[in-house]
């Protein structure tokens, strides 16, 4: 399963986005299922604008199960807040923190993102180790 960040979701469903072609090409090579979180979807819909064709295309993609959506429970939300404080000098927003928590919870390491700078610095806690993400994008 591959974590999916806001940037590719916006780029994939807004043909005017300058990363549209690149993200579409990457998506065509991905064979694993995609997953994301509610905070990432919230951010993507905000950037796409509610009445846009991109917003409708994203709704259709999620409805067709092109993307699994993970909801944060209390424990996950508290962990996300911890990460936001830990990376406060960066800073980390809730959408990014939720993907790191999902990676930790589901033992994932691949992320489809345009944001190499942030995800290049974030680490996934696995026991006593802190592992880097494998970035697609």
In whole angstroms, the N-to-C terminal distance is 15 Å
Low-confidence stretches: none
> Which series of helices and strands comes N to C?
EHHEHHEHHEHEEE
Helix content: 40-55%
> What structural class do the secondary elements suggest?
alpha/beta
Please count the helical segments: 7
Which fold name corresponds to the CATH topology? Answer: Rossmann fold
CATH superfamily placement: 5'-nuclease
Main β-sheet: number of strands, strand sense, barrel status? 5 strands, parallel
CATH structural class: Alpha Beta
The rounded Rg comes to: 14 Å
Percentage of β-strand residues: 15-25%
Based on the coordinates given, report the CATH architecture: 3-Layer(aba) Sandwich
Overall pLDDT score: 95
Name the overall outline.
Answer: globular
Q: What's the β-strand tally? A: 7
User: Number of domains in the coordinates?
Assistant: 1
Strand order of the largest sheet: 3-2-1-4-7
Give the arrangement of secondary structure elements:
Elements: E1 2-4, H1 6-13, H2 20-29, E2 34-37, H3 38-48, H4 53-63, E3 68-70, H5 74-86, H6 94-106, E4 110-112, H7 116-121, E5 123-126, E6 129-132, E7 134-136
Parallel strand pairs: 1-2, 1-4, 2-3, 4-7
Antiparallel strand pairs: 5-6
Helix pairs in contact: 1-2, 1-3, 1-4, 3-6, 5-6
């Amino acid at each position: 399963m591959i974590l999916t960040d806001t940037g590719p979701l916006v780029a994939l469903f807004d043909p005017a986005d300058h990363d549209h072609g690149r993200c579409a090409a990457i998506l065509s090579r991905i064979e694993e299922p995609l997953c994301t979180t509610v905070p990432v979807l919230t951010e993507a819909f905000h950037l796409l604008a509610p009445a846009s064709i991109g917003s409708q295309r994203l709704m259709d993609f999620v409805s067709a199960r092109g993307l699994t959506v993970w909801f944060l429970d209390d424990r996950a939300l508290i962990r996300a807040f911890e990460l936001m404080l830990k990376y406060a000098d960066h800073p980390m927003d809730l959408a990014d923190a939720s993907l790191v928590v999902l990676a930790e919870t589901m033992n994932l390491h691949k992320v489809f993102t345009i944001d190499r700078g942030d995800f290049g610095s974030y680490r996934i806690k696995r026991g006593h180790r802190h592992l880097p993400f494998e970035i697609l994008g």
